[in-house]
Amino acid sequence: MEFNVKKLASDAGVFFSRAMQFTEEKLGQAEKTELDAHFENLLARADCTKNWTEKILRQTEVLLQPNPSARVEEFLYEKLDRKVPSRVTNGELLAQYMTEAANDFGPGTPYGKTLIKVGETQRRLGAAEREFIRSASINFLTPLRNFLEGDWKTISKERRILQNRRLDLDACKARLKKAKAAEAKAALWNDEVEKAEHEMRLTQTEFDRQAEVTRLLLEGISSTHVNHLRCLHEFVESQTNYYAQCYQFMLDLQKQLGRFSGTFVGNADSTSPAAAPSAPAVAAAPLPAVPTIPVVPTIVGVPNTVAEGVLNPNEVKPPASGTRKARVLYDYEAADSTELALLADEMITVYSLPGMDPDWLIGERGNQKGKVPVTYLELLS
Question: Is the pTM of this model over 0.70?
């Protein structure tokens, strides 16, 4: 009991000494031990890394999950160390509604058939979005979060200890200075000077040791940047694959809709009343051009010579030079006889022909030959 009382009294004395030193420094009444310029640069770099990592993390979370309520729910599940329940994406929900609507309108009608096809594509888009979110969370968000909740907390703790060691050191310097000033007036203060010098040597040693520990942690920020750079590359790769999949899904859908001869033609036996005669239609003013991903327009009943291809791949021969090997990234179902069906991870030979759409190549696998989409391939050197 007596030991605890003494320890509490000692801790209170240390806290009071630090508080006095800190206050006098703020008032300009006490000297402060300054860290070297390199150390200050390390501190500033660490603070900058922490601040920007927080901002990038929060905004990436918003990008992957725009719903704030859903983000709060995921945060709570994570803190409770429980698995976040699977959530239906907006694309998958839209696909469900379109399929149900098609069944009500009649799956054999032009509108119903189109709803089913578009719904299937929306489901594929939703599944691709889910995979992108999963990949980005694991490969990008988790490392950033681990830094903030792990390494940064350790750095902050050691910085607080260093700050306390510096206050102790400067308080000892102030006491030594006062003791030496009093020694000049009376020889009775010799013991106080020796005691103050001893305390200052101890606090200087503790300060130097803690400064070295903190310096090593701060220099580790460079390794953090390297790790975050690798994670950023993985995030970009995931996002690239996601958008490439979405682009290809929409191209496939556009081709499928082009084969529905009655998709945009009203039913002949429709019971809807005929529209009353109206004034001649006035051509709408053209909209300003907006840069987009090039998509080949499809008009019902008119063959699309670029997308469908007037060129029969089976009638062409590979060039003498310019062929390359390619690895297939995803399964691909051939839309017609001019295309080549693909299986993920297989190797094929590809090349281009004059006048071909740049989004397509000629692919060969044994005796089979046909057009293949570039976005489904990884071209090898």
Answer: no
